[in-house]
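In this supplementary section we document a worked example of the pipeline. Step one takes a protein sequence of length 110 as its only input; no multiple sequence alignment statistics are reported here. Step two produces a three-dimensional model, which step three serialises into structure tokens for compact storage. The input and output of this example are shown verbatim.
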Amino acid sequence: MQLTAAALASIRGGVSGSVAFEAVEPALRPGVQALGFQVLLDDKHYFPPYEAVPLVREDSLRRWPAIQSAMDRLAGKVSAEEVQEMNDAVDSKHRDVGDVVREFRAKKGL
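The serialised model returned by step three reads:
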């Protein structure tokens, strides 16, 4: 069960009690909370953890080798908390995506 912030926003009016399960991607939680939802603990471990990974076609890597270089520079440099902060800045605070990314890259020296 994966819900995007847009999906949550579209259903919020029809949800009684404003409840979301912990299965909501951790990166989206600030947006979920900003919508007035309460995140519930999945104490039965029904939903798997959210783990982001890059997926790129091999032919794309052959055609544009700089993609691999860019991914290598990012490896291990983006924590779940940082993704949450960036998503919150864009979704809840309505900041420009480009500005948020530029600030992140500057902070990380990328």
